[in-house]
Amino acid sequence: MKLLTFNCCGFPPLAPGTKSRMQSIARAVASIDPDIAAFQEVFFHRYTRALGDILGPRLPYCFFHSRLGRFPAGGLVLFSRFPIKAGSFSAYKARGPLLGKSIVGHLNKKGMLMARLKDPPLNIITTHLLPNFDGNHTDQGRYGRIQAAQLAQFLTQVNSLDKNIPLVIMGDFNFPPDCVFYERLIKEGALADPLAHDPRPTGFGEWCKDGKVRAKPKRIDYILSRQQTVTSRSVITARLIFQDRLKKDHPKNYLSDHCGILAEIPL
Questions:
Q1: Is 27 helix (H, G, I), strand (E, B) or coil?
Q2: pLDDT tens digit string along 55-78?
Q3: Does the domain formed by 2-264 have CATH 3.60.10.10?
């Protein structure tokens, strides 16, 4: 089974022309032909429709939690080739103060989207944690404390799932592999990371609106598998995708400010 995760950067003030770019994203995803596609930062239903208009023939089952009748909660949308037996959305309780940069966690209701396939049996979770604007990925950091609380809630959900059913986790965790949160995620979730030895980042620093690189990009996007799933079958494999500019002479013309991850796991 081929699984894809991709942060679309669907925030118009940061990325003008978002709807047409969503159509370009959908065409690029369709060319890869995954069985499951998990998207983050799809902040408006019109973007979901733009993706679905193109992906629908290949991935006819679309799942998201509608918020206020206009927004996919958390900006999380899942497309599947297989019927979705059950699904739910759970918002993170810790979102930080309303004043300051953490307001983004309130505006788009950060959380996790969960789906279960019947055939093949598979649990899927996609999520998007609050960005760490300080870059201090510890329990003592201003935004690190919020990330730690969100991660704790996430791990509680992961460990509550039936361990006899394969589990795949996909999304933008907004923390890199060289921090305590990553170690906690892998260890306490009993998860395997097929890109653990790949040092390449999953973001493009020059893509930001003013063209300035604010920080050295790191890997913050992941596809992870429960270790019981991996050891009972052959190991999940993964690679980075959508790393090339659409126009080589345009420094910001990528599909998004993130590249995607494509993984394969036998089920």
A1: helix
A2: 999 999 999 998 776 789 999 999
A3: yes
